[in-house]
Amino acid sequence: MYQMLDPHELVVFITGATSGFGEATARRFAQAGAKVIATGRRRERLEALQAELGAENCHIAELDVSDNAAIEAVVNALPAGFAHVNVVVANAGLALGLAPAHETDLSDWQTMIDTNVTGLVQTVRALLPGMIERGEGHIVTMGSVASDYPYPGGNVYAATKAFVKQFALALRADINGKNVRVTNIEPGMTETEFSVVRFEGDQQAADKVYEGMTPMTAEDIAESIFWVTTLPRHFNVNRLQMMPVAQAFSPFAVHRGE
Ligand SMILES: NC(=O)c1ccc[n+]([C@@H]2O[C@H](COP(=O)([O-])OP(=O)(O)OC[C@H]3O[C@@H](n4cnc5c(N)ncnc54)[C@H](OP(=O)(O)O)[C@@H]3O)[C@@H](O)[C@H]2O)c1
Questions:
Q1: What is the best residue among 47, 67, 184, 194 to mutate for testing ligand 1's pocket, by most ligand atoms within 8 Å of CB?
Q2: Looking at the domain assignment, is residue 229 inside a domain?
Q3: Exposure pattern of 28-59 as b/e (b: 16+ CB <10 Å)?
Q4: What is the CATH number of the domain that holds 173?
Q5: In 3D, which of 151, 144, 188 has the Cα closest to residue 165?
Q6: Given CA atoms 220, 226, 229, 233 in this order, what sign does their dihedral have?
């Protein structure tokens, strides 16, 4: 029988665990016997998750990934049993708005860059040295199909995810031989709070995105993360791109006339 890793050996550090992919990933790993460090800005949600999963399996820490000092403080304060992180799920991120580039709010662009790019590299930088030192680990970065397929209004969001994809691939080049795996997860349409955040709390606008089709779920994405990280240690999935069956590609847009 094909031998997957025992999840009991995994200590999983997750950013953005208060909602969506991160929360589902925390559940998937904790329920399989892994130890999970769930982080995010909303403390009440972290406390509820810890109450559900049990404090012996789930350590929580309030964390804004755009604050590097806060990341280092959380990593340095990990309690015994959670300190030897061997899976990092750098997932925290967001899209804001769908306005065209010439009309968008510059502060929205800055927030996406601070979270999706700066926050992600800070998370990886804080946890990678420990993995290298211990000779074992797995970095999972949260990309998107937006890194390969631009769409109107995607502008800086798509660009942050292109950064994440290339950063993940470049990491593999740097740490080859160190027994640390890197996987960029690249989902398409998945119903979480993602669209509610994108449309600043407008639930109706968010619901419209998934109207009349079946999107992927946070559990689908958590399952893919669980799969890549429990594969045998010699096996590295570099990129994993996923879409709901109802989502596909369209031809190039062609503007005709003046
Ligand atoms: N849903 C999709 O269709 C889709 C597709 C491709 C990729 N993605 C990516 O998947 C990731 C997770 O998104 P999701 O769909 O699960 O959306 P979500 O339900 O809105 O969850 C986003 C998570 O990121 C956290 N977060 C946002 N800003 C943060 C910050 N500054 N510091 C720490 N945590 C922060 C949020 O927690 P707090 O607000 O509590 O901090 C929340 O837990 C994102 O990187 C997103 O770009 C989503």
A1: 194
A2: yes
A3: bbbeeebbbbbbbeeeebbeebbeebeeebbb
A4: 3.40.50.720
A5: 144
A6: negative
Place of tokens 């012996």: 56
**Is the C-beta atom of 147 inside 6 A of ligand 1?**
no
Does residue 168 lie in a domain region? yes
Q: Is residue 57 part of a domain?
A: yes
> How many whole angstroms separate alpha carbon 85 and alpha carbon 74?
12
Upper half-sphere CA count for residue 93 (Cβ side, 13 Å): 24
pLDDT confidence tier of residue 122, bands split at 50, 70 and 90: very high
Partners of residue 138 on adjacent β-strands: 87, 181
Mean pLDDT to the nearest integer, 51-75: 98
> Using CA positions, which residue lies closest to atom 39 of ligand 1?
41
Q: Is residue 2 part of a domain?
A: no
CA-215 nearest atom, ligand 1: 3
**Total number of domains constituting the chain:** 1
User: Catalytic: 157?
Assistant: yes
Report pLDDT digits (tens) over 170-205: 999 999 999 999 999 999 999 999 999 999 999 999
Q: Domain span at residue 20? A: 7-242
- The C-alpha torsion from 163 through 166 and 167 to 168, rounded to 10°, is 130
Q: Judge if the beta carbon of residue 70 lies within 6 A of ligand 1.
A: no
Q: Whose CA is nearest to atom 30 of ligand 1?
A: 64
